[in-house]
Amino acid sequence: MSSVFVVNSGSSSLKYQLIDLKTGESRLSGLIERIGEPDSFIADHSEGMSVVLAKLGEVDDLVAVGHRVVHGGSEFDGPTLITDEVEREIDALSRLAPLHNPANLLGIRAAKKALPQVPHVAVFDTAFHQSMAPAAYTYAIDKDIAREYKVRRYGFHGTSHKYVSEQAAAMLGKPLGAVRSIILHLGNGASITAVDGGKSVDTSMGLTPLQGLVMGTRSGDIDPAVLVHLNRAAGMSVSELDTLLNKQSGLLGLTGMGDMRDVQDAAINGNEEAELALQVWRHRIRHYIGAYFAQLGGLDALVFTAGIGENNALLRRRALAGLSHLGIEIDNDRNELSSRAARVISPAGARVTVMVIPTNEELEIAHQVESLVL
Q1: How far is the C-alpha of 354 from the C-alpha of 349, rounded, in Å?
Q2: Cα–Cα distance between 108 and 7 in angstroms, integer?
């Protein structure tokens, strides 16, 4: 037996799992929150890691620690052994992910101090999307400014998109290299990716996780001139605009509710703002499905994953209604079936296989760590 300890560190939290590489099962999992906050008994991430290790106990078969890191820029396209130089590069990339990379580094440093006897590996959310062609990741702005400030599309949720696209190929019984798929990672944060032969060819998130689909509190796609207009007309500062787009927009901005379950309940009860929000959410998804269908030149599988994608039959049906001309259809009985298992929800014989596949980013991180160190 051998196991990988997977760490996902936030600014005030430590989420962890111990993954058995032979079975793929989680032997231990947990979350420590409110680290460093005034009413917390845990002062910092080092103390938090000590608490985690006390729960973990002696693990004789631990082969490595895998760390989720949000932004790897264009420097990292796969799992990477964490050296002092890699830590410096992750830190330098904090200007692209100021809320995430510094927090990820706190977890890395605490875990390396607590577990110095095993290798530590970074797995980047952006890495899977490094296979995109320049035409897909290049923004049409001044090339010198873009180069100096690393402005381009990077994409996120890559660990989830990679795992789910590989599971989809396995369910189809086809080689990964022969499958064209569209993956809808729909949760409070949401993204959609076109995958051709196991490689990301386009994705909805951009320089940051703000671009793309309508999310819980993020706007998704918006005309950049809106920001210029609000600066001039409303006197909003850069900080205020950043807060508006990331924390006060999306479903929350449209309805006053940031949780899709609340929005859906309100819409069912006749709330017109909530119904409009669902229509906007749906419209954006269909926009990307059509675009990615064209980019892929056809489609073998369309897959729902993450919290909304895995659990909300009504929104799955609404998102795909009227797409039968593309070969995309849902069987209502299959779609309504309550299950936590990966499953097909399209009719038998449909041109495009529509699936629901629960994501497992921790397992994917463990497998990527295994591929590097074993």
Answers
A1: 11
A2: 8
> Pairing mode, if any, of strands 3-10 and 62-69?
parallel
Residues ≥6 apart with Cβ < 8 Å to 165: 176, 179, 181, 183, 193, 195, 198, 303
CA 190 from chain centre, in angstroms, equals: 7
Backbone torsions φ then ψ of 194, nearest 5 degrees: -95, 125
pTM over 0.90: yes
What single letter denotes the amino acid at residue 171? M
- Catalytic pick among 125, 196, 202, 300: 125
Mention every residue, 6+ apart, whose C-beta is less than 8 A from residue 198: 165, 166, 169, 176, 177, 179
Give the C-alpha separation, 97 to 84, whole Å: 19
Listed in sequence order, the residues at least 6 apart from 326 whose beta carbon sits closer than 8 Å to its beta carbon are: 289, 290, 293, 299, 352
- Structure tokens that stand for 140 in this block: 């049409």
Q: Is 331 a catalytic residue?
A: no
- Dmax (CA) for the chain in angstroms is 63
Residue found by looking up tokens 């030149």 in the block = 297
**pLDDT above 90 for 215:** yes
In whole angstroms, what is the distance from residue 277 CA to residue 155 CA? 24
The answer to whether 142 and 152 are in contact (CB under 8 A) is no
- Taking the CB of residue 186, how many other CB atoms lie within 10 A of it? 26
Residue that wins the pLDDT comparison between 139 and 48: 139
Q: How many CB atoms lie within 10 A of CB 271?
A: 16
- Beta strands 62-69 and 80-81, pairing class: unpaired
> pLDDT of 299-324, one tens digit each?
999 999 999 999 999 999 999 999 99
Q: So what's the pLDDT on residue 266?
A: 98
Model pLDDT, residue 5: 96
CB 162 within 8 A of CB 191: no
- At 159-213, the pLDDT tens digits run 999 999 999 999 999 999 999 999 999 999 999 999 999 999 999 999 999 999 9
Exposure string (b/e) for 314-324, b if CB count within 10 Å is 16 or more? ebbebbbeebe
